[in-house]
Fold these 2 entries.
Entry 1:
Amino acid sequence: MEKSMSMAPLLLMVLCLPFALGWHDYNQALSKSILFFEAQRSGYLPHNQRVTWRANSGLNDGKASGVDLVGGYYDAGDNVKFGLPMAFTITMMSWSIIEYGKPMAANGELGHAMEAVKWGTDYLIKAHPEPYVLYGEVGDGNTDHYCWQRPEDMTTDRHAYRIDPSNPGSDLAGETAAAMAAASIVFRRSNPAYSSELLHHAYQLFDFADKYKGKYDSSITVAQKYYRSVSGYNDELLWAAAWLYQASNNQYYLNYLGKNGDSMGGTGWAMTEFGWDVKYAGVQTLVAKFLMQGKAGMHAPVFERYHQKAEHFMCSLIGKGTRNVQKTPGGLMFRQRWNNMQFVTSASFLATVYSDYLASSKGTLRCAAGNVAPTQLLSFAKSQVDYLLGDNPRGTSYMVGYGNNFPRQVHHRGSSIVSIKVDSKFIACRQGYAAWYTRKASDPNVLTGAVVGGPDAYDNFADERNNYEQTEPATYNNAPLLGILARLGSGHSGYNQLLPGIYNLYLHYVLWF
């Protein structure tokens, strides 16, 4: 017998469960995502610091090595400054602004986003005191993880580690060059002198990376346990060349992509992931853009091979390829147990920009299962962001402070310990574990905007501080999300994504740098 259903309960359910239906405030999520970076700041905090439970920290960084390394970002829930993921964070924040600065400005967040980039690039400039010297880490994970302390109380070793011609690190130097080049585009109109300085550093760092080849974690061995460069350095060299071409329009870097695409794997690797270690999908997306812009010239055959690999990546995301990404029963892209969300946000960003590139060129995505409209890529990105914000079997928002049901016991030292402004009593190295780490209570400081590692392959999640695989946030989880949220919050982009990126910013936006 067929059952009839009253509309009243259904209407009540619709009103009470907005997350289940994907009604999200992307602009609010964007604002919170940017705010997270202020909680990750190291150094002297500025007068306009909005995360007020934080205070100055790491004020002697670099001093023992005779260099000023005060500033920058802590990467995740610890107090180490790791150069490779920090640089990738800056690259992806910059790319987000380059593509979607206009809706960020409309939302009143462009200034905050640019401040977040500049906080990172100011540090990267300090970390590059000579053409062939780059400091790639301050502190080390082993001694840092032995302690559970607020950054303001740190008593751990703050040794500074560097690369140079005798101890090279092409992946680290290449990613830092990419970050400087991308950021130079961001500041080209609002701060041309700073933009030129960044581009100058990018040129030098690319030269360093290309001339003295080697993996950075063979030189900075303390990074191996935490940020090992599994992919090597060829992807970073191509990635840096792509960003330097976009920033400078210098044909040398376009030629580099053309001449080295085959030998360095740019045209060979068919990827299903993108992140701080493996950059090939990002390179392939940028080169596909250059091809769509008609800039390939004599390198068109090589660039078409990059393009094909970019499309392989995009097809794999939407389940239309020859080798597709794994997804949870609830529909989340799944790559690994430990901080899976980093791959979700990075891949979704590439899908978003590629969708807009295709729409701007009036093209379609060519997949093994047939041609696909660009809107399907954007729909994929939206589905991943909606899942992150609460449209999932648990009804959990994996962005702290967004919605009502978000992680309360985040694996994060500063968030989990009472603010030094509330209780200035010193908390010793191991004391933090005994007094705060093991507390089965909500964090005293809400880490607003932080995107945590997220659920497992079956959509399960345990909100426990010691569950670092799922509850630890990271800057590189948030960086690509800025662009996607700005895009989704704006509706239709309304401008050509194949025009030079700087024209997608509000050119007369007044900033205070």
Entry 2:
Amino acid sequence: MPRGNMANSSSGSNNGSSSSDSDSGAAASSGGGVESRPAVTVQLLQKLRGICARSAPWLWALWLLVVLALVYGLREPLMLVTLFLNTLTPKFFVALTGTSSLISGLILIFEWWYFRRYGTSFIEQMSVSHLRPLIGAAESSSPTPGFAFSSGDTEPSSQNLSAECKVWRNPLSLFRGAEYNRYTWVTGKQPLTYYDMNLSAQDHQTFFTCDTDCLRPSDAVMQKVWRERSPPARIKAAYHALELRNDCPTAYVLLAEEEATTISEAEKLLKQALKAGETAYKKSQQQRPQHETQHRRDTDVMLYIKRRLAMCARKLGRIREAAKLMRDIMKEFPLLSMLNIHENLLEALLQLQAYADVQAILAKYDDISLPKSAAICYTAALLKARAVSDRFSPETASKRGLSTAEMNAVEAIHRAVEFNPHVPKYLLEMKSLILPPEHILKRGDSEAVAYVFFHLQHWKRVEGALNLLYCTWEGTFRIIPYPLEKGHLFYPYPSCTETADRELLPAFHEVSVYPKKELPFFIHFTAGLCSFTAMLALLTHQFPELMGVVVKAFFGTLFAPFGFVVEKIESFMSSGLWHQLT
């Protein structure tokens, strides 16, 4: 609820309740003892916490004195323990150190496996999950009565988190039947995850359905089709919808996406869908006031079909035709820039090497008020690198320094790498590439895969561009030493990209993680403990007498301060004082 409405409603409730204050006074006075008990308990707990915080240094000092007194009183039993340790054989120490090494090695293996799979330490996670609530239970107590948090205070943070992890439709997504399924037939691997396909099903229900579908049998069938998981069942239902009405555009769309095994077949089905969609669009446009939702649905269907037809023309080599279709779509639907049709046009124009037109599109969409993408940032870097990359030499640049044009190109590369640091390894072919998913996470590995899959050829075509990228891209990380805390040109890098990318990308792909996570402390600790105890076991087994001397010297040095303190205490105290006290 907006804050103004919340304020009005709260003031209204206060005015309405003022007349009943006299009636509720008796009830409040009679039940006040019961209702105020939680508040009194909270106040008492806060006072106790304050007292404990003020007296903490004195309590620690008292505890230290108690420990010293106990050690002094139990000095004779401790001497017996020392005698017992002296009587132990080297075999016992070999068994002890060997067992310790084995246990710490098992913990190390488990910690390493857990970290590789989940990206965190198991021991740290258990400590945070179980120990922190016990330590901070009092701090997380409920607020005092009369003080309330407004819901508007938490809205910005939740909106920022949802915006960081928002998944977008891939503007260059492939055809399932003609491309994704062919990859599965050849390799036997599934390029799409269930999560990705589920998001596509939700998109199709949003684009291709409306409230009036139940009035038309064919649209009612297609409304159920988009919820169907089995591809053969969807294709069969699409044919059933065409039997009910032979000009059902969404049925042709589904067959083009999932049944067509080549791009040419998909284009033919999409042309039939376009013809049927134009008829439905004109009909709903005439009845627009009464059927607004149906007209909006028909508009979405037309936009989708025209865009996929332009992509078919691009894939079949008719690039100028594809660029013209995309420009027509952007003119016909200017308010739908959120669908990122300009990224399709950028890729087609780069293939035509129409760099002036590419620069014009970047000048329009590379704006601070518009959401960025890897295609925008890296295409801008490519154009600036194109001006200097053919004569760029790192040796020459180190001697004479960078020129103004070279500095602009390097800054553009740093800007692009800051936005999405996963792209350079794919462009430089340091990491294997896979088919792009149907949805991407901006600034994530999924967006990097989708961008490089189509734009790697454009970088290779510009002479020296990849060399310039290779020489300069790692300098970005020196500008941003702590990317999760503070950014340079963009917001800090979101910490949720790894989890979302693992859902979007197939399991056989090694997800790129940024920034690289350092090994947890407990992995270092268990590794050191395992190697140290193993070394002790080996040395004790090989040199038992020498290790016995080393152990006695170690414990003698360790307990020397304790013996010195005991001697000083005995020199100041009479010999029978302890017996008199006990």
